[in-house]
Design brief:
alpha+beta
């Protein structure tokens, strides 16, 4: 698709009306379509962290999220950097690496970045696009504003607890007097 042609007025010494600006003087602008949040709802419904949210709450997630495209082998986030967004994969495959070792492959409906948003610590892994990837990013401030609603916070906590239970990981005690 050819980007729309936007004509800009020439205010120089040989100024002409906008209608008379030549093709050579015109500036092309690639205009991103405005995406209706309703079109994002089908992408967000299967995302496990949002399971159980009302349509209105899910609409708020859709409204506050931003779509970002990544090229193959492009780094999306880096281990050790501050966590600034929850990332939801809507297209493509993402490899998750911890200390340069692949620990997961994510596809549409999967997400990453929630841990840093919750605990405020740096990112625990790097995420790299395997192929062309589209991510819905929910900024930290927007995630926090959603969690200000007790209903949403409870649903997200329940979903994260379910994920922890499903991983079958038992935390190790770090001090002799702690129990796992």
């Amino acid at each position: 698709m050819t980007p729309p042609l936007c004509l800009e007025a020439n205010n120089g010494p040989d100024a002409r009306s906008d209608r008379q600006v030549s093709r050579a003087q015109a500036t092309y602008h690639s205009i991103m379509p405005v995406i209706n949040p309703v079109t994002r709802l089908p992408l967000l419904r299967p995302v496990s962290i949002f399971r159980g949210l009302s349509k209105a709450s899910l609409f708020e997630v859709a409204r506050k999220s931003v779509e970002v495209d990544y090229s193959p082998r492009e780094t999306i986030v880096r281990q050790g950097e501050p966590g600034d967004a929850l990332c939801i994969v809507t297209k493509g495959t993402v490899e998750v690496l911890r200390d340069d070792r692949i620990v997961a492959r994510l596809g549409a409906g999967d997400y990453f970045g929630e841990i840093s948003l919750i605990d405020g610590e740096p990112r625990s892994a790097t995420a790299v696009a395997v192929d062309a990837v589209t991510i819905l990013k929910l900024r930290s401030a927007d995630f926090d504003s959603l969690l200000a609603d007790a209903y949403v916070a409870r649903a997200v906590m329940k979903n994260l607890a379910r994920l922890i239970r499903e991983t079958d990981v038992v935390p190790l005690a770090t001090k002799p007097d702690q129990k796992a």
